[in-house]
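Appendix B. Chain record.
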Amino acid sequence: MTTNMITVHQDKLGGPEVLRLIETAIPTPGPGEVLVEVRAAGVNPIDTKIRAGGMWLVPPFTLGWDVSGVVAGVGEGVRRFEVGDEVYGIPDFPHLAGGYAEFVVASESSFAPKPTSLDHVHAAALPLSASIAWQALVEGARIGPDQRVLIHAAAGGVGHLAVQIAKSRGAYVIGTASAAKHELLRGLGVDEVVDYTSTDFGTAVRDVDVVFDLIGGDYEDRSLPTLRPGGLLLNITNPPAADATAAKAEAAGRRGITFDLDPNPERLALIAESVDAGHLRPIVTETFPLTEVVKAHELAEANRTTGKIVLIP
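Structure tokens predicted for this chain:
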């Protein structure tokens, strides 16, 4: 096996143009770690935000937390995987393991067996987005039959998976999206679609049990009146403001929860089971070779994509 690999590197914050390809040594897995040959890597909104503003990270670094690939090496003490296993996962989130590369090394707990019914491109569209939706709706809200759920940005990377997860549990789903995406959402099982460009969802929607806010900003305030008394607002867009969200919801007679993703392999395994059972299917809107990562980030920042963008090393 070759000793070097191509990786996407940035040594300063800024626009997509700061992303550049470099050649570096293939990492060696340490105790409890696996080396994965990356077959595909998903692009997430958090990637573009960190590239531009750093958030909790300081360059130099390599982005990428959505990975699907094949185990190429195992460190001491690894028990769950062997060389040749097909896996997918979220390498060491929120620390940087660097999925935008030909190989990535991370703890074995970052990965689970890849859904057998998906190729690597579609599997790479799942880990981060599906984990967020699952943690919020299944573990947080405990969505069940006949509950009314409002999902904002329902056709987006997280939203289209959240729709399917809620529907698989018997919920009545209302989704906000532009008119061009309504047919897609109906195909995913959405019961009502609201065109946010022409309709104020804050007055058009009422008596929902759960709102899953994937946009933030004024959507939080506008969503509270759509909830029934005691209803739950789920917010992942501004974790530092969690206390303010909870207080605002409580004042309105509702509940508000803001959470950070807490990845684990057990959840990834459940997501894979749901996929292989036919309940969950990721949509990939565009693929790019690793050499065109700048174009991938330009498209991601346009905020007009349906489903996910995936890089192929």
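Further analysis of this model is presented in Appendix C.
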